[in-house]
Each structure stands twice: as C-alpha cells, then as structure tokens.
Amino acid sequence: MATNVQWTEQGGWTADGDWGSAGSQGRTFDLARWQARLDELRRRHHVPGASLAVLVNGRVHELASGVLHRGTGVEVTTDSVFLAGSIAKVYTATVVMRLIDEGRLTLDTRVADVLPEFATPDPVATRTITVRQLLSHTGGVTNDFNYDGGRGDDCLARYVEAARDVPLDCPPGTAISYGGLGYIVLGRLIEVLTGRTWDQALKDLLFTPLGLERSMTLPEEALRFPAAMSHLGEPGTDPDPAPAWDLMPRSAGPAGRVITSAGDMARLAAMHLAGGGPVLSAEAVAAMQHRETDVPDKWTVSADGWGLGWTLYDWNGIPGYGHDGAAIGQYAYLRVVPHAGLALVLLTNGGSARLLYADLFRDLLAEFAGVAMPAPFGPPAQPSTVDVTPLLGTYRRAGVVITVSHDGGGAGDDDGDGLRMRYEFVDDMKEMSPPLDMELLPVTQTVFAATGAGPSFSEDHMPVVFSTLADGTACVYVGMRATPKID
C-alpha cells in the first residue's frame, strides 16, 4: 500500500517536494521484496506481528506481517494500531512547539510561571526549570515515578500535584537524564494553555490538521481499529499474549501513550521532514532538531545527542533524528534521514523486536540513505584492563538503587578484576520488577556491557556508562537515566 504525502490546501508539499539531491531520490521501493524481508526477519526474531511504513520519494509505503494476537490469530493489516510507547514524547513536544509558534510561551519560559502547582523538593530548581530543559531531558526530573492520576480529565493535574515531593535525578542543567515526569508536566502545561485535556489538544492541534485518522491516545478509542495485543516471553521463543494489553495509567499519556498505525506516524514525520506545514513553522521544526545536549550513553537508544523531543543520530557524518518506544511488550522505532527525505517506522507487539529493528533498518537505511548503522553494542574480543575501584559503590535516584560491586565476591574472585551490578526498584517502584543482577564486561574505561538485559531492550548487551555531572558528582547511566553516586 502506498499513499502520496501532500498538503496542497495549506500551501504544503506534494510527492514531488524538495527532499534533497542525495539519498533516496529516484530509488524505487520494491514492495514485494521488502514484504518478504519483513516476513523473514519477523519470523526469525519471534515477533508475533509488525507493521512497517517507509516514506521515500514523497510516498508512504505501508506493510504488515504476522498476527495481532497469537491467541486469536487475527492478522496484522496496514490499518492496525499499536502502542507507540515513548514516541508519544515527540507528539507532546510537537504540540508544545505549536504553542510557542502561537506566542503562548517560549522555550525559556520557567515552568512554574505557567504551572504554579509545579514543584520539586529543591526550591531553587522549582523556580528555574524551563520548558527547554523538560523537552531536552536536562531538567533533572526522573523517569521512575509511576503515579496513577485516575481516569478523569484531571489526571495530569493530580499527577503534577503528587510529583511535588519526588526527588530530582540530578540538579537541572547538569546532565541529560531521560525522564517521563517532565513530559507529563509538559502535557499539563498544554492543558492549562489550551483549556483542553492533553488528549483533546492532540486531536485538535495535531491529529486533525495532519489527517492522522488512525492516531489516538485513549484505549477505548483503539477499539475502532484492529489493535495489536502485547506479548511477553523468553528470548528466542514465540511469546505469549501478556496478562494485560497496557498497564499504563491515563496520566502517563504525554510521556508514553499514543496509539497509532505505522503509516500515520510516517505522516507525522513527513511534516517534520518538509520543514513545517499546517502544524509547525519552519523555525519550530528546526529548533526541535537542534542539538541541545550531548549524550554520554550513545548505545541504549543509539543517541548521539538530544534535541527538543527528538533523539539525534550521527551515522558517520550523516545526521538523523527519531525516537524509540516500549509499552508492555510492544516496541516502536522511528528514524528520519533529512538529506534523503526518508522516514522509517516499525511497530511491533513482542518478541526480540530490537533485533528485528536492527536487521531491517540496517538494510533500509543503507539502500535509501547511504547510512551504515553502527555494529551491535557489546564488549570487544580482548577487553582492556580497567581499574574498577573508583566505580564501586551505591548509586541512587527516585525509585531506583544501583549497587556496583566486585564480580564473584564470596566465590574466590574478589580481586577487583570484574564488576557486578544490582539494579533494584525501591519505594513506590518496588513492584515494577524483581532486582536484576548482571555481570559488567568492560568496553572502555567507563563503558561496560551488562549481560542478561534481553534482546528487546539492547540486542545482546545493555550499556552501563559511568560519567560525572556538570557539578562533579559521579553517576552511572542505565537506560539513559543518570543515577548519582551516594556512597
């Protein structure tokens, strides 16, 4: 299935728009070939169902493979919808930038000036955290505050009120620390400025103007379409349907719940690729892609930097942007290469989804954009010797305690040659998962590969990166979250 991308009524672009002289322009998309490749890789990596959209030469090509639910056998179609997880942050950021276009706030507006109810345990941070910092994950707020604000239209207001006592991961402006709390605050900011719920604001300011008819935010809205069921299971096996489709509360929406088809997500990317349209100005689109901060952990989500909502990539000098998402067994991937006018969207419902993404996008990016994706993350064949003593200790942020210790302590291997990491959810997050105990294999003096993370998260190994905040405090990055050292 292929559709043209055009907004002629708004003076926008057509399928013959200016996508640049390099990359994909003029290349033919062989639907049968890529359908066969998608089918092959989906089966190989035990992914029950997947939907792929490729925007190339101004046309969106949509492919579907597998089943929505292994228990029912209902097949995935191109109009099927999936949970997009954290890619919802791109949607929230886009609406915030529209409000900036309209003059309702600026990037450097202090959040507390718009939301007097916003607060942190640090009064100075409360007064200084800006919209720009929340959009770029440099505000210091955490990801691990899983508060349920209820199903009512006041759910975001209740979340922001409850978050007042949640400690910061780090002082604002000292580091990037990926955080969902900040995007929920931005969702509430949207509500206050528009007088609408975040859900309705996305419809009115984003979905409707772009013609995204298979995009929504509430679970009951997904019942209008064939919807993918989440699946969970052990790596290398066919997963089973999860006990619940989605466990996220409504208040998590601005950070983690947009439900969409792959084609609709590609059409959102088309607006950004074209430098604006009926939703954003060219200046706002460019600002979102501007690098706000570098990223110490360049492997968890393949990030080289972060913009306003967008993850930024550098493929051997070829820039790109996108985002990853995960939601209880469903995994989503969005990659955009501006010079080639290329956007790729992959939505999945379980299995070793990251391996499917890596194999499929490696082929597509090479053919249509001349991009060589980096090799999978992992330790070198001959690891270097590392003095681990400075890394030992306890690291803590809201909801999480990380303990780094000698590998093999108590078993005769306590000479400091290796490391182990215990990752434990505590306090309000303690029911999220049992503690994880992993061996850390050295990649460099400060970067380690953790075993046992699972292929849907990080292919074969999970990156663990030791760094320091701008104020000199030692920290460790796991899952793009900065956790300061306390002992």
Mean pLDDT: 90
Count of helices? 13
Give the end-to-end Cα distance, rounded to a whole number of Å. Answer: 57 Å
Q: What portion of the residues fall into strands of 2 or more residues?
A: 15-25%
Description:
The protein has 13 helices and 22 strands. It has 487 residues and is α+β, with helices and mostly antiparallel strands. The strands form four sheets. A nine-stranded antiparallel beta sheet has the order 1-3-2-14-13-12-11-10-9, with helices on both faces. An eight-stranded antiparallel beta sheet has the order 15-16-17-18-19-20-21-22, with no helix packed on it. The model is unreliable at 7-23 and 409-416 (pLDDT under 50). It is globular, with a radius of gyration of 22 Å. It has helices at residues 31-44, 88-101, 111-114, 123-128, 131-135, 155-162, 180-194, 198-210, 253-256, 262-273, 282-289, 353-369, 455-458; strands at residues 2-4, 49-56, 59-66, 82-83, 215-216, 231-232, 240-241, 259-260, 293-294, 305-306, 311-315, 318-327, 330-337, 342-348, 393-397, 400-406, 419-425, 436-442, 447-450, 462-468, 474-478, 481-484.
How would you summarize the topology of this molecule?
Blueprint: E1 2-4, H1 31-44, E2 49-56, E3 59-66, E4 82-83, H2 88-101, H3 111-114, H4 123-128, H5 131-135, H6 155-162, H7 180-194, H8 198-210, E5 215-216, E6 231-232, E7 240-241, H9 253-256, E8 259-260, H10 262-273, H11 282-289, E9 293-294, E10 305-306, E11 311-315, E12 318-327, E13 330-337, E14 342-348, H12 353-369, E15 393-397, E16 400-406, E17 419-425, E18 436-442, E19 447-450, H13 455-458, E20 462-468, E21 474-478, E22 481-484
Antiparallel strand pairs: 1-3, 2-3, 2-14, 4-8, 5-8, 6-7, 9-10, 10-11, 11-12, 12-13, 13-14, 15-16, 16-17, 17-18, 18-19, 19-20, 20-21, 21-22
Helix pairs in contact: 1-12, 2-7, 2-8, 6-7
